[in-house]
Amino acid sequence: GDSVTQTEGPVTLSEGTSLTVNCSYETKQYPTLFWYVQYPGEGPQLLFKVPKANEKGSNRGFEATYNKEATSFHLQKASVQESDSAVYYCALSDSGGSNAKLTFGKGTKLSVKS
Amino acid sequence: ETAVFQTPNYHVTQVGNEVSFNCKQTLGHDTMYWYKQDSKKLLKIMFSYNNKQLIVNETVPRRFSPQSSDKAHLNLRIKSVEPEDSAVYLCASSTWGLYEQYFGPGTRLTVL
Predict the structure, then answer these.
(1) A113 close to A13: Cβ distance less than 8 angstroms
(2) Residues of chain A whose pLDDT is less than 70?
């Protein structure tokens, strides 16, 4: 079946430093890839999605490129802020199936200190 | 306001009791989901419904049963809760054929 592996947390950074959260995936299909973010006390919310290989997604200063050859979708941000403290999930869609199922990675908890 | 709403926010109960959680979405979606999120933040799909029909039923114990009255509502009943059921239960919705899901704030269940 499909699987997603991402950087194990927790990750602690100082404000203004750069972030990379690695994400690699396995699937026999042609998935759409997602990054979700979950702030404390809330449900996960979509950060952005990329449906096509070799394209980049971005939102709020975060970005990731769908690398089909390397089966990777690493999340990056040049300069993190305290408000970026959250859990980040990489996910892929079961595009070959009919149930629009998402497979999530285990999540990476990010803490940003001022 | 268009969103996914869940009630209650928290629930504390004893082993063996029955609990029910409610979920309603006002986004006009036709597909709804229940996820379980454990203490390590791991998200696991439990069920998904499309237009009141069960589509996905992952391997969950029989004491869990989803209930859908219409495409905007998907409730979750747990008969005879056990300590390992302590978790956050997240409801989500989407449009069939589109993959982005919208989540509610979750219901935190504590089983004593």
Answers:
(1) yes
(2) 95-100
